[in-house]
């Protein structure tokens, strides 16, 4: 080895040169946990399968009346439930208070008179004073006991059946059986109760029993069509370095050393359209299933293009490009368009009910499948680059996302309703490998028209 | 100050703070190595970044009888060669028959700073630069270089000779500028 080699070795011995901060940032990003495609794929597959199974189970249970068990019971069982309920409300001191608040008035008397006429006073005879009985008790007790029973004051002179009359004899001769065995009696009793205790009061009483709510509830199912605007916020590295021998100066064809760089992404709004179905599980909770097509657009800039397969294509660094023939030009604008089919399942909870208006919050999971991804450069000679979303550093072809949102619903009539909603969904998969990168997300606004398949009577 | 070995063990456990400390301790020492092989500072930074990622991913295989800095330099050199390999395929090194294998006049380096020599190295074609670094600075023989770069030994020798001739012209020019500046002063 000559002195030249020794000199040059000595010259570099102990030499130091501080690299820029970008190096550590890149190292840190490179050390971030890598996406494990295999495990992810399995999780994704099983996740989708579990989601479908859950939806089918829900549908099956809903169809079988699992969530409306009280209402779905046959008449006989419902009678038992109501009887239990009556016992509960009768023994409950709170319900006694409510009863005591209901002062008898002329209207209730008229109602009871009507009940009497409808149910048993066809022969228009009156009950004798020794046959006075509590109307309620008369249906639950043997006829013999009725003689000793006392009709409340407010029923005096309202319903009277002569003991010796035809009706009275019929009652005495009739086999003793609980009123529940008679459908007509049940209907009579129900109507009477509804007259005496308006629905609002009943609601107050029944709120104490979960069984009663199930009996009252009749779920509203609807289909809906929606239009909206969605903004995709991506998180990409935005730049890429190339080796100098692959970069050619378009004028001299000499190798250059430079970087292909893309600027800051600028989200542009894009239209989306969807269809969905909403299944009301109970008074507050609904299951919503839907599919939505979206076109997300965002702007960027580039300083180079490449020739691939005989085509001049724009370069957006985060989606990759062939490094064989890269040409540098002045900065130009890029427009990225990503088409997506989104399937989602959410549960919405009604937090505010103002009659025709109600406000609900919702949360759930969704899957985006990116149908196409196109990059268009503003230079005339450039063709549109078609990209597989999985080649980008911020998306996979299929992305799971968490969804949350707020919906304001307005009921036009018993058939149609309008909903306005704002939603935010954050991709659980498909984020960039840069440790500092935030996962991509979508902010959406939408307006939908709802058509009620099953309706509450107004 | 925490010892290298302790720092290495923490890095193996994946402690980011320790990794940053190790990086801070050695990045400036390794950067000149990467700069000798790269075409520019940015190129060198890419090499250094890749090298550090490899370092942190393979710290478990570091045998402590070797000097840590030497081990690190070896990784930077290998990363640099891989970085340049694609370019070497595209611009294959050829035997340069007419290039003299020895430069008769000695090259005077005393007037120059290492950054100036580095800038000259970066102007060399990629094949010459790689061979020059491996032979003159890392101390490899032409046979080893030929195996590593998958060229013939003759190619390695001729590339080295060419690198040295090109460097000589650049160094002579730099020395002339330095001397003329001294005369003016």
Quick rundown:
The complex is a heterodimer of chains A (458) and B (185). Chain A contains 13 helices and 14 strands. Chain A is an alpha+beta fold.
Overall pLDDT metric of chain B: 84
Shape of chain A: elongated
**Nearest-angstrom radius of gyration of chain B?**
19 Å
**Fraction of residues in helix of chain B:** over 70%
Helical/strand content category of chain B: mainly alpha
Through-space gap between termini of chain A: 102 Å
Topology pattern of chain B, helix = H, strand = E: HHHHHHHH
- E-strand count of chain B: 0
Strand percentage of chain A = 25-35%
The helix tally of chain A amounts to 13
Distance between the termini of chain B: 46 Å
Protein model, in words:
The complex is a heterodimer of chains A (458) and B (185). Chain A has 458 residues and is α+β, with helices and mostly antiparallel strands. Chain A has helices spanning 3-12, 21-31, 37-63, 69-72, 75-91, 93-101, 106-119, 135-140, 143-146, 166-173, 183-196, 199-206, 210-216, and strands at residues 221-233, 239-241, 247-248, 259-261, 266-268, 270-280, 285-308, 311-314, 326-354, 357-377, 385-387, 398-411, 416-427, 441-452. Chain A is built from 13 helices and 14 strands. An 8-stranded antiparallel barrel of chain A has the order 1-6-7-9-10-12-13-14. In chain A, strands 2-4 form a two-stranded antiparallel ribbon. In chain A, helix 7 (106-119) runs antiparallel to helix 11 (183-196). Chain A is elongated, with a radius of gyration of 38 Å. By secondary structure, chain B is mainly α. In chain B, 72% of the residues lie in helices and 0% in strands. Chain B has 8 helices and no strands. Chains A and B meet through helix 1 and helix 2 of A and helix 2, helix 3, helix 4, helix 5 and helix 6 of B.
């Amino acid at each position: 080895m000559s002195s030249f080699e020794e000199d040059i070795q000595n010259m570099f011995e102990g030499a130091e040169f501080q690299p820029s901060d970008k190096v550590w940032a890149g190292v840190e990003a490179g050390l971030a946990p890598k996406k494990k495609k295999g495990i992810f794929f399995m999780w994704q597959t099983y996740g989708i399968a579990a989601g479908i199974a859950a939806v089918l189970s829900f549908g099956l249970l809903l169809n079988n009346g699992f969530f409306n068990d009280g209402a779905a019971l046959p008449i006989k069982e419902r009678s038992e439930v109501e009887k239990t309920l009556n016992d509960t409300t009768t023994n409950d001191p709170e319900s006694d208070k409510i009863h005591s608040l209901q002062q008898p008035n002329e209207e209730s008397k008229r109602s009871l008179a009507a009940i009497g006429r409808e149910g048993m006073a066809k022969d228009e005879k009156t009950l004798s004073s020794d046959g006075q009985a509590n109307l309620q008790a008369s249906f639950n007790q043997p006829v013999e006991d009725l003689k000793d029973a006392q009709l409340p004051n407010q029923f005096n002179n309202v319903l009277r059946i002569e003991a010796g009359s035809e009706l009275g004899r019929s009652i005495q001769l009739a086999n003793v059986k609980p009123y529940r065995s008679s459908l007509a009696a049940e209907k009579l009793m129900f109507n009477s109760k509804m007259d005496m205790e308006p629905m609002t009061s009943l609601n107050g009483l029944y709120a104490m029993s979960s069984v009663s709510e199930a009996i009252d509830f009749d779920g509203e199912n609807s289909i809906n069509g929606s239009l909206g605007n969605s903004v995709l916020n991506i998180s990409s590295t935005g730049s890429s370095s190339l080796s100098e021998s692959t970069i050619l100066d378009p004028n001299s064809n000499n190798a250059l050393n430079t970087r292909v760089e893309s600027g800051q992404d600028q989200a542009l709004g894009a239209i989306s359209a969807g269809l969905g179905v909403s299944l009301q599980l109970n008074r507050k909770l609904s299951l919503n299933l839907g599919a939505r097509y979206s076109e997300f657009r965002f702007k960027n800039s580039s300083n180079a293009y490449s020739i691939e397969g005989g085509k001049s294509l724009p370069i957006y660094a985060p989606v990759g490009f062939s490094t064989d023939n890269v040409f540098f030009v002045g900065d130009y604008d890029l427009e990225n368009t990503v088409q997506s089919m989104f399937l989602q399942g959410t549960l919405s909870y009604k937090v505010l009910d103002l009659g025709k208006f109600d406000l609900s919050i919702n949360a759930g999971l969704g899957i985006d499948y990116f149908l196409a991804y196109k990059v268009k450069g503003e230079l005339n000679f450039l063709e549109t680059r078609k990209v597989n979303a999985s080649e980008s550093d911020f998306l996979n072809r299929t992305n799971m996302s968490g969804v949350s949102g707020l919906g304001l619903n307005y009921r036009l009539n018993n058939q149609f309703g309008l909903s306005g909603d704002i939603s935010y969904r954050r991709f659980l998969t498909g984020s960039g490998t840069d440790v500092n990168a935030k996962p991509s997300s979508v902010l959406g606004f939408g307006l939908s028209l709802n058509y009620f398949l099953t309706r509450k009577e107004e | 100050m925490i010892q290298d070995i302790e720092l290495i063990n923490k890095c193996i456990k994946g402690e980011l703070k320790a990794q940053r400390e190790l990086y801070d301790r050695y990045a400036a020492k390794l950067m000149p190595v990467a700069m000798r092989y790269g075409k520019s500072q940015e190129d060198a930074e890419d090499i250094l970044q890749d090298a550090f990622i490899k370092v942190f991913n393979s710290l478990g295989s570091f045998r402590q009888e070797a000097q840590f800095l030497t081990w690190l330099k070896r990784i930077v050199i290998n990363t640099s060669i891989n970085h340049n390999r694609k370019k070497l395929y595209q611009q294959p090194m050829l035997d340069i028959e007419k290039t003299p294998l020895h430069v008769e006049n000695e090259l005077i380096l005393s007037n120059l700073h290492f950054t100036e020599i580095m800038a000259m190295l970066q102007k060399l074609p990629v094949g010459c630069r790689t061979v020059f670094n491996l032979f003159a600075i890392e101390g490899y023989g032409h046979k080893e270089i030929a195996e590593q770069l998958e060229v013939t030994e003759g190619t390695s020798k001729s590339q080295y000779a060419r690198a040295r001739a090109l460097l000589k012209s650049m160094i002579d020019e730099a020395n002339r500028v330095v001397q003329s500046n001294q005369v003016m002063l």
